[in-house]
Specification:
This protein is an alpha+beta fold. Helices cover 48% and strands 13% of the residues. The chain has three helices and three strands. The termini are far apart.
Length: 83
Amino acid sequence: MSEPSYEELKAQLAQLQKQSGSKRSGTLDFRVGEKGGVSVYGLGRFPVTLYYEQWTRLLEAVPELKAFLEEQKAAGKLKLRES
């Protein structure tokens, strides 16, 4: 197999940058790792990885989490990111 040319590498890099740029537009990506953990990409710089039982516990607590976040927001304790 021959080495790719400079132009081919440049085109591949441009394609990868285009793909990663679209990922940063708020799109979430889910992946299952080798050890069975489910990772969520797109929330921040690093993925969030939990196991099935942890995700289900977190999802069951969504109403309480939303209420907690609203209380903290109203109290001015949260740092909100600017879009």
